From TrEMBL, chain A:
The keyword Zinc applies. It comes from Arthrobacter psychrolactophilus. One of its GO terms (molecular function) is allantoinase activity. It comes from the Bacteria. GO terms for biological process: 'de novo' UMP biosynthetic process; purine nucleobase catabolic process. Its cofactor is Zn(2+). It is an enzyme of class 3 (hydrolase). Gene3D superfamilies: Metal-dependent hydrolases, Urease, subunit C, domain 1. This is Dihydroorotase. Zn(2+) 1 binds at H61, H63, D155, D308. Binds 2 Zn(2+) ions per subunit.
TrEMBL record, chain B:
It catalyses: UMP + diphosphate = 5-phospho-alpha-D-ribose 1-diphosphate + uracil. This is Bifunctional protein PyrR. CDD domains: PRTases_typeI. The keyword Cell inner membrane does not apply. It is an enzyme of class 2 (transferase).
TrEMBL record, chain C:
One of its GO terms (cellular component) is cytosol. Pfam families: OTCace, OTCace_N. This is Aspartate carbamoyltransferase. It catalyses: carbamoyl phosphate + L-aspartate = N-carbamoyl-L-aspartate + phosphate + H(+). Keywords: Pyrimidine biosynthesis, Transferase. Its EC number is 2.1.3.2. Belongs to the aspartate/ornithine carbamoyltransferase superfamily. ATCase family. Pathway: Pyrimidine metabolism; UMP biosynthesis via de novo pathway; (S)-dihydroorotate from bicarbonate: step 2/3. Residues 163-315 form the Aspartate/ornithine carbamoyltransferase Asp/Orn-binding domain. Carbamoyl phosphate binds at R54, T55, R104, H134, Q137, G277, P278. L-aspartate binds at K82, R177, R232. It comes from Arthrobacter psychrolactophilus.
Length: 442, 203, 344
């Protein structure tokens, strides 16, 4: 195979220093300001003046829907969306049909990801068989499979049985796995439609109390401490949850936490329209929660941004609120929303952005070749961002099958100009290029 | 919702401020016309027996009250309070679908009811005749009068239906682009309140 | 006025206009010929996703007295129960040239969804949605209260509001669209509202509503009340631990014979007792109270037709060529987010 190389010229690395980056054979071959012609060779030059270079984003929380709900999304369409959004790896949640609760299903998803070639697809394994909460899935078999599953979650459903949660936390220690909990006390949220508070009282929609999330997180951090395991809390949505996680971290409990872009920007006031595009689990919360989440992401209490990208067919949203499906698309807007809420507000730098969207999620997911620094010898998973650009969100123009973007028609900052996945440009000039084809050993 | 209770003739162009207007009936003219109409009514009815005056909102109603007072002045047997009513025709109009929403006015009938009575409908301006058509429909739903007559302060022509007034204060030839405005102190109160009928030139 | 979806966004002037128009409509109901041609040629669809014979026949009578054509569309036994979506049902009605859709739905917000989604052009009247709103019920309640209030003060009710009136609404506020719509409308009309309920049957956030909250019905009565409205307790609440037993509920929060006697003892001779119906006699209201001269239950039913005639008339009689009269009736708060488009 011939050597393919690219020279990213004059990019601002993490928004800090301007340099050229030479990519060769999927690896960062050189970084510098005056790379000689001998070093550059026949590399394709990409003018990145004014662009910010970041490590490829890693999503710990993506619903790719395949197998089973290919009307909503496929691995192919979902990973195209991911590449366009600046991602080089996504974790595919287990609530497909069949559920990803066996080595067979996770290997299928893993293979589909490899075939598509737009990003790394890392399957998340179910904690319990069929997400039913009654019997542990074969966590070890999934860990040992070709998919090398390390993150386990019943996301969409809470592992509410405390004994089941304890066993899961303990069991995954055998292969250094992590349980990603969807914190939602089921009895407190029966029929729940939106955050419980002033707006739910007005709208007559069944309330989803913050305590339903916070009580599970409180229980789980104590369980994690007791059994000495790693806990990851999915999509933290309330100020109270932030306080509990902060307390747990201060006590040295091994807990990581995630926030979605939509919980950083949107509030429950939007529900007053009764437009189900704003229906999501966990629900949009109050303004004070949004600000607590931003502060927590900035100070490290919340470790990462996870999109909870949840595409749905249009009929699942073009209906009355109570009948509508929960979930929002997010892969193609995540970067812009985080820039809008965290960087434009001065709460974070682009280096912080790289930490919460790439380095930290790669560490939680134990992806050795993702979330790496932009240094010589590292895998060339790189995204180039035009931070000065502004664009109007048009769900119809997205690569995801889901049209359920709550950011529709909003103007947001930041455009992904190029995404390099193992040194191959999956996205160039803001549009899909070609997928990466791994050099197979055979 | 536009709470429009303007007279039929005003609709559609009532917002245009009039550039030119001339008074065609003064307060004294109106007074004399009503006096004459009251006599005509008594004469046509051969007295005041079984006579009811129903004013069409808004300005027909005070005109009906004034006529009743004049009837009482000439015939002590008449109690003006018991022979005057108001007949709202809003919901019987044929143009409801083509105009801004109108709030209905109240219909109040004398306690005697209208069955077997001689009804004199009273309105300020007779124009297309559609208001009176609506009033006749409204009456039918309320009972069966022995006879229905029509008294108007001004007949400005341009009829669109075969309707004719029995008693007319003044025949006023107009162009259809002109507007006839009746000012009555009961309705158009305020400091400058004075009775008059003016013609405003059209745009 | 384009739609009637809730009372929270109903302005004072529009509320008074509806009540005043209803006053004229009530005169029609007292005539020998109870029909006027105002909506001749207009089609009103009663779209009921939830059983409510009382509300449906009230709307049906109202539309027919205005000479509109009425189509009753019940979710029971129709394609709706076979999984047809609200959108498809709405567009079917649109294709049949419905001028107004009177919608009753088990889901809060379904009427707003219908009105704001762009699926149909027809005027939408909310005939009760989930636990959200029931504006025509609140309007008929206000109409009933206004007639009483005006009679007490010896003035005409037309043009009047409810300034100074003290209203107690007692019962299952949490699940009550009637209570919600009344709270907002009575606030607009100047009445002073006290909600009385067990704490389990008040929504979180109720403290932000424009009313007082009490857990003690007797104290609320002793404070002086001009109208007391008892809310229905749904059967499905009785076994969901909202209260220990129906007996305890009736004792603490029901309008029983003792409380009826208490009104007399407190010399509150002009206090009326209201109920939106249907009543659970012996639970939230005793038979003696329901049948007492204070009870306005039947007047409320009668006034319901007048108020619904007014709403239909004001929504439908206007200019067909103009989609809306902009300044008066604000739509419910709807951020400008376009509807999710189809994809193929």
């Amino acid at each position: 195979m011939t050597s393919v190389s690219y020279l990213i010229r004059s990019a601002s690395l993490l928004g800090q220093t301007t340099a050229d980056v030479l990519i060769r054979d999927g690896i960062i071959a050189a970084v510098g300001t005056d790379l000689g012609a001998d070093v550059i060779g026949d590399a394709t030059v990409i003018d990145a003046a004014g662009l910010i270079a970041l490590p490829g984003m890693v999503d710990l929380h993506t619903h790719l829907r395949e197998p089973g709900r290919e009307d909503s999304e496929t691995v192919e369409t979902g990973t195209r969306a991911a590449a366009l959004g600046g991602f080089t790896a996504v974790h595919a949640m287990a609530n497909s049909s069949p559920v990803a609760d066996t080595a067979g299903v996770v290997e299928q998803v893993f293979s589909l990801g490899r075939e598509s070639g737009w990003v790394d697809v890392r399957p998340v394994g179910a904690v319990t068989v069929g997400l039913a909460g009654t019997q542990l899935a074969e966590l070890g078999a999934m860990a040992d499979s070709r998919a090398r599953v390390r993150v386990f979650s019943d996301d969409g459903i809470c592992v509410s049985d405390p004994v089941m949660m304890r066993r899961a936390l303990e069991y995954v220690k055998a292969f250094d796995g992590v349980i990603a909990q969807h914190a939602q006390e089921p009895r407190l949220t029966e029929g729940a439609q939106m955050n419980e508070g002033i707006v739910s009282a007005d709208l007559g929609l069944a309330g989803w109390p913050a305590v339903a999330e916070e009580s599970i997180i409180a229980r789980d951090v104590l369980l994690a401490q007791h059994v000495g395991s790693r806990l990851h809390v999915c999509h933290v949505s309330t100020a109270g949850s932030v306080e509990i996680i902060r307390w747990a971290k201060e006590r040295g409990i091994s807990v990581t936490a995630e926030v979605t872009p939509h919980h950083l920007l949107l509030t429950e006031e939007l529900v007053r329209s009764y437009n189900p595009v704003y229906k999501v689990n966990p629900p949009l919360r109050a303004d004070a929660d949004v600000h607590a989440l931003r502060a927590a992401l900035a100070d490290g209490t919340i470790d990462i941004v996870g999109t909870d990208h949840a595409p749905h067919p249009s009929e699942a949203k073009e209906c009355e609120w109570a009948s509508a499906a929960m979930g929002m698309t997010g892969l193609e807007t995540a970067l812009s929303v985080v820039q809008e809420t965290m960087i434009e507000t001065g709460l974070m730098s682009w280096a912080d952005f790289a930490r919460v969207t790439s380095t930290a999620p790669a560490q939680i997911g134990q992806l050795a070749d993702q979330g790496r620094p932009l240094e010589v010898g590292e895998p060339a998973n790189i995204v180039l961002v035009d931070a000065a650009a502004r664009w109007n969100v048009d769900p119809a123009a997205m690569a995801t099958k889901g049209r359920n973007s709550p950011f529709a028609s909003m103007e947001l900052p930041g455009k992904v100009v190029a995404t390099f996945f193992h040194g191959h440009p999956t996205v160039l000039n803001g549009a899909l290029n070609t997928p990466y084809r791994a050099v197979t050993a055979s | 919702m536009t709470n429009s209770s303007e007279a039929f003739e005003d609709l559609g162009n009532s917002s245009t401020p009039a550039a030119v207007s001339r008074v065609v009936l003064t307060a004294a003219d109106i007074e004399r016309a009503l006096t004459r109409i009251a006599y005509e009514i008594l004469e046509a009815n051969k007295g005041s027996a079984n006579l009811l005056l129903l004013g069409i909102p808004r300005r027909g109603y005070p005109l009906a009250q004034r006529l009743a007072a004049k009837l009482a002045a000439s015939d002590p047997a008449v109690d003006p309070a018991t022979i005057v009513g108001q007949l709202d025709v809003t919901m019987f109009r044929d143009d409801l679908a083509h105009q801004p929403t109108r709030a209905p006015q109240s219909t109040t009938l004398p306690v005697s009811g209208i069955d077997g009575k001689t009804i004199v409908l009273v309105d300020d301006v007779l124009y297309s005749g559609r208001t009176i058509r609506a009033a006749l429909d409204a009456l039918v739903d309320l009972g069966r009068p022995r006879a229905v007559r029509l008294a108007v302060l001004v007949d400005r022509g341009h009829r669109e239906l075969p309707i004719r007034a029995d008693h007319v204060g003044k025949n006023l030839p107009t162009s259809s682009t002109e507007k006839v405005r009746v000012h009555l102190s009961e309705i158009d109160g305020g400091l400058a309140a004075k009775d008059e009928v003016v013609i405003e030139a059209g745009a | 006025m384009r739609h009637l979806l809730d009372t929270e966004s109903l302005s004072y002037n529009n509320a008074i206009q509806i009540l005043d128009t209803a006053q004229e409509m009530s005169a029609v109901g007292e005539r020998e010929i109870k029909k006027i041609p105002a909506l001749r040629g207009r089609t009103v669809v009663n779209l009921f996703f939830e059983d409510s014979t009382r509300t449906r026949i009230s709307f049906e009578a109202a539309a027919k007295r205005l000479s509109a054509d009425v189509i009753n569309f019940s979710a029971k036994g129709s394609s709706v129960s076979k999984g047809e979506s609200l959108k498809d049902t709405a567009q079917t009605l649109e294709a049949m040239s419905a001028d107004a859709v009177v919608i009753r739905h088990w889901a809060s917000g379904a009427p707003a969804r219908l009105a704001n989604s762009g699926w149909i052009d027809a005027a939408v009247i909310n005939a009760g949605d989930g636990t959200h709103a029931h504006p025509t019920q609140a309007l008929l309640d206000a109409f009933t209260m206004r007639a009483h209030w005006a009679k007490l003060s010896g003035t005409a009710s037309v043009g009047a509001d409810l300034k100074g009136m003290r209203v107690v609404i007692a019962g299952d506020v949490l699940h009550s669209r009637v209570a919600r719509s009344n709270v907002w409308l009575l606030r607009t009309l100047g009445a002073h509202v006290t909600l009385v309920a067990p704490p389990t049957l008040l929504p979180i956030g109720v403290e932000h509503w424009p009313c007082e909250i009490s857990y003690d019905l007797d104290a609320a009565l002793e404070a002086g009340v001009d109208a007391i409205m008892m809310l229905r307790v749904q059967a499905e609440r009785m076994n969901a631990s909202f209260f220990p037993s129906t007996r305890e509920y009736a004792r603490r929060w029901g309008f029983d014979d003792a409380r009826l006697a208490k009104l007399d003892a407190l010399a509150q001779k002009d206090t009326i007792i209201m109920h939106p119906g249907p009543m659970n006699r012996g639970l939230e209201i005793s038979s003696a109270a329901a049948d007492s001269p204070r009870s306005t239950v039947l007047a409320q039913v009668r006034n319901g037709v007048s108020v619904r005639m007014a709403a239909l008339y004001l929504l439908l009689s206007g200019d067909m060529r103009e989609p809306a009269t902009p300044s008066n009736f604000p739509p419910v708060v709807a951020p400008s987010v376009p509807s999710v488009k189809d994809f193929s």
